[in-house]
Amino acid sequence: MPAVSNVLVIGAGAAGTAVSILLAEGGVSVDLVDVKPDVSALGSGITLQGNALRVLRELGVWDEVGEHGYAFDTLGLRAPDPNGTLVAELEDVRTGGADLPATVGMYRPELAKILVDRATEVGVKVRFGLTFSQLVDDGAGVNVTFSDGSAGRYDVVVGADGVRSATRKALGIELEPRGTGMGIWRVFAPRPPSVTRTDLVYGGPCYIAGYCPTGEGTLYAYLVEDWQDRSGLTAEESLAVMRGLSEAYHGPWDDVRAGMTDPSRVNYTAFETHVLDAPWNRGRVVLIGDAVHTCPPTLAQGAAQALEDAAVLAELLLASDAVTDELWNQFVERRLPRAKAIVEASLQLSQWLLNHERGDVPGLMAQVAHLLSSPA
Questions:
Q1: Which residue, 224, 216, 179, is CA-closest to 200?
Q2: Residue 258 burial (CB count, 10 A)
């Protein structure tokens, strides 16, 4: 018998839906709640590397992800010159194994819908527009009062509610994300034929100028700059700023820029980071995903690390016959060093850029690829 018979998961992002699916498939009754009114996800596109794809295959959604996303196996490096000259074409490491692509780009809300639909299919009770108002852990279970006045009792509660986790706050854990000094512009736009993979440009007015195909007809493009408060800009002004910054980049960027016409598709966010040291639980309430580790997107590993948390936690809960300190210790021992190493590598890349320092990027990337090629 699994260690749990019923579980509440708070947060219907990648981590929350993934752990819900795996537990439900293992015979556990799962309630999944999210304060948002529906399945819609903010953002434009998402880059999923092989280790993320490995978990998505375990969740039974790989075929849909492959159908709706855009797979590729190389990475291009281009110069910030008038021609957008291709400097190098690198074979990317297939960290999920030889039978999966190195990378898949896709529309983030589409991935969110696929995961929630899969959760519903395997019997998870999904409720949007709902969260908890109180968690009371009595050692044998957790009594939960919900925001609509209803209540329930669960063997374990999983807080997968993001970087500003309300669950983490309710547990009295003082952990706030800090900015790294960078901000990122993103836009969702049509994919021109010239874009068939991610190409990165280092230099020019931005630290990084890149794009990632997300489907046969779509992509998301991004520009990384020094963080500044852009909150006062209208949508039209934001588009104008992003188009202006992009004018320094050429080659396929000229085609990308021509499709950057919809102000509603532009967003701007800060690079933020944090890592929670052990333990990741307080009694029978445990935190996963961005609630415990958040890294800048320089390695495109945020969702992947959240998915790995979910896979490991579900494995341990289904394989154990009781909820014990040993279970929680095993979970954090398997996940904290790996997640922390990814956060630190992401920060190192960011710091080299901020310092205009030529660090050993190939060496760092090789270390990360080697780490991620082994399952979590």
A1: 224
A2: 12
Give backbone dihedrals phi and psi of 198, rounded to 5 degrees, phi first: -80, 130
For the chain, which residues make up each domain, given as ranges? 6-72+103-177+273-372, 179-271
AA identity, residue 177: P
> CB of 73 within 8 A of CB of 142?
no
Residue where the block lists tokens 């598709």: 265
> Positive or negative, the Cα torsion across 181, 186, 191, 197?
positive
User: Quick one: pLDDT band at residue 362, thresholds 50, 70, 90?
Assistant: confident
Contacts with 367 (C-beta within 8 Å, 6 or more apart), sequence order? 345
Residue 78 tokens, joined: 């281009």
**Arithmetic mean of pLDDT, 246-261:** 98
179-271: CATH topology is D-Amino Acid Oxidase; Chain A, domain 2 (3.30.9)
Residue type, 271: F
**For residue 181, is pLDDT > 80?**
yes
Q: Check: CATH 3.40.50.300 for 6-72+103-177+273-372?
A: no
Cis-peptide, bond into residue 279, ω within 30° of zero: yes
